[in-house]
Amino acid sequence: MTIGTQIIVLDEVSSTNDHIRSNSKQLKDGAVVIAGTQSAGRGRSSKQWDSKGAGNLYSSFILKDVSWLSTPIQLPIICAVVLRRAIVQAMGHDLDGLKLKWPNDLYYGDGKLSGILMESGLDGIIVGVGVNILNAPKLSDKKTSSLAQIMGPLKVLSPQELLSIFIKLFNKAVLEYKGSGFGVFAEEWEKYCMHLNKKVAINEGLDDNTPLKEAVFLGLAKDGGARLKVDKEEKERVIYYGELKVGEWNARSL
């Protein structure tokens, strides 16, 4: 299984995930879609992802064959590790401030740099990958960052260049997973986790109206879930869905 077997380049689309969903039967396994802009980009929990500015990476790919995975729950962790590797390779050096937030967000400092959206389709799993390269959109609920702020605008690569690096490293990671298992990715993910053994807030609902619960993030379970010690609960437990908020939280929205 490899991605990049088919690459479709679009000037504008509602969202690259939606384009794949609408055309999945005609697409090869591992097909990739990249767009210049998105008119209706979205993140997890159907939140809007500001993607109207050119110069950022807006892309998706479809995995029709996931038989190589022990469980699809591990895929967000693998993709986050691969995306971090791709950014580091593109920059030419590592950065301590380039951190991961469960399950698959990348942050630089306290600003969100990228997001990965997993969705189930009739023909497989659709993976959306967005990275702020030139532009850091202004959001009401969180800070953002961009590669241009980190590297300087004259050194920043194009979305196509970053996607090419990601494709190569993802295909390499599939072989690594088959040979060594999930543990190597879990270890690397925890190494760069921004909230390991720290207090977080968890929203386990399907919308922002669910009350937040305080918890301590203990790391990853063997299957990729989040191990939490939730306030006032005696035993730790593992969750597979929800959003974490790191740092100060006074609002209900994550």
Beta content: 25-35%
Biggest sheet features? 7 strands, mixed
Please state the CA-atom Rg, rounded to the nearest Å. Answer: 17 Å
Largest sheet, order of strands side by side? 1-2-3-7-6-5-4
Question: Which bin fits the share of residues in helices?
Answer: 10-25%
CATH superfamily of the largest domain: Bira Bifunctional Protein, Domain 2
**Number of distinct beta strands:** 12
| Number of helices in the DSSP assignment | 5
Give the CA-CA distance, first to last residue: 35 Å
Structural features, described:
- α2 (75-91) crosses α4 (159-180) and α2 packs across α5.
- The protein has 2 domains: 7-191, BirA Bifunctional Protein, domain 2 (2-Layer Sandwich), CATH 3.30.930.10; 199-246.
- With 254 residues, it is an alpha+beta fold.
- Helix content is 24%, strand content 29%.
- A hairpin with a 3-residue loop joins β4 and β5.
- Mean pLDDT is 88; it is low at 250-254.
- It has 5 helices and 12 strands.
- Strands 1-2-3-7-6-5-4 form a 7-stranded mixed β-sheet, sandwiched between helices. Strands 11-10-9-8-12 form a 5-stranded antiparallel β-sheet, with no helix packed on it.
- The termini are far apart.
- The chain is globular, with a radius of gyration of 17 Å.
